[in-house]
Amino acid sequence: MTVRALVVDDSATMRGLVSAMLRRDPEIEVIGIAASPIEARAMIRELDPDVVTLDVEMPGMDGLSFLDKIMRLRPTPVVMVSSLTQEGAETTLRALEIGAVDYHPKPICDVGLTIGADDGALAAKVKQAAGCRGRLQHPDHHHRVVADFRWNGRLIALAASTGGVEAIGTLLADFPANCPPTLIVQHMPTNFTRMFASRLDGRVAPCVVEAQDDMPLTQGHVYIAPGGTAHLTVKGDRSPVCRLVEAPPMTGHRPSADMLFRSLAHLTPDRLVGVILTGMGEDGAEGLERLHRRGIPTIAQDAATALIYGMPRAAAERGAAAEVLPLGRIARRLLALCAC
C-alpha cells in the first residue's frame, strides 16, 4: 500500500530535500508540498494525506499551534523535521507532547549528501507513522491524585521509544510525589533527554531528573537515561545506584532497555517491576524476558493503546510480559505492585 505524504516547510530548499528523500522510496507518494500552515491546512482537507512532515521552526508562523489544531480537529500522523540543537530539542519535545508521532533531523542542504547520509531513515519513519492513523488521540495531561501511597521497596524499570514522550507523560501523571524509584530508557538523542526530564519535572508530582553516574535511587524520583552517550544500568541491591556504562550500542540503541533490564536481573521478585511501552523495534524484549524468568512482575502496553506496537509486541511474543494492559491502567497496576 502506498503512503501518501504532505511535506510542509517554509524553506523551498528544505521542501525539495525532504520530498527527494521520500520519493526515493517506491512505497511513498508525495501528494503535496506546502510552504505554510495556512496552505497546509487547505491541502490536508483536500488531499487527506496519510502522513504530514512538518518543519518544527517556521519564522513568523506558529507551527506548534498548527500541530495542536491538527491533533484536535483532524488527527493525522505527523513527523516533525527538526534541528537537533537545544532550541530545536525543546520545540520538538513540545511537538511530541502535543501528539506528533516522531521527528527526524533536518537534512543537510545538499541533495547528494542528504540522500546518501539519510539512508532511508526519514522514509522509514513516515511509513511507520502511517500505521498510527486511527490510534492518535490528543494527550490528556490531567494530574490524578493518589492518596496514601506506601512504598514496599520495589523499583520500577521502564522502556519506551516512538510514542513514548506522550505515553510516559500520561503514566507519570498518575504517580504520587512519593512514588517508587523509577528508571526510564526512552530512545532519544543527547540533547533531548535532559530537556525531557526537565519538562516532565514541571508537569508531574515526582522529581524527574536525567540520571548521573553513582546517583542513588530514592523514593519520589524518576531517572531518565541520558541519550546517546552511555547505557543506564543499576548497581547494588538494598542501596542501589545508577551506573552509566560507556559501551557500544546494543540492538542499535544507546541507551538500551535490554542493558538496563539485564543489570537488574539479579534482584529478587519483591524488588522490581519491569515495563515496556510503545516503541519501534525489539529493544527491551530480551531483557524483560530475563526478568520474567526470575519471577519478577512484568507489564507490556497493549496493541490498542500503543502508538507503535513494536517493542511491546516483541515482549509479548517472547512470553516476557506477565500482563498486557492498556496505558491508562498501567500506572495504577504499578503502584499496586509497589505498595505495602
Automatic annotation (TrEMBL):
Enzyme class, broadest EC rank: hydrolase
Keywords carried by this UniProt record: Chemotaxis, Cytoplasm, Hydrolase, Phosphoprotein
Entry keyword tRNA-binding: no
GO BP terms in the entry: chemotaxis
A molecular function (GO) term: protein-glutamate methylesterase activity
SMART domains for the chain: REC
Taxonomic source organism: Sphingomonas jinjuensis
Subcellular location: Cytoplasm
PANTHER family named among the record's database cross-references: PROTEIN-GLUTAMATE METHYLESTERASE/PROTEIN-GLUTAMINE GLUTAMINASE, PROTEIN-GLUTAMATE METHYLESTERASE_PROTEIN-GLUTAMINE GLUTAMINASE
Protein's name in the database: Protein-glutamate methylesterase/protein-glutamine glutaminase
InterPro entries reported in the protein's UniProt record: CheB-like, CheB_C, CheY-like_superfamily, Sig_transdc_resp-reg_Me-estase, Sig_transdc_resp-reg_receiver
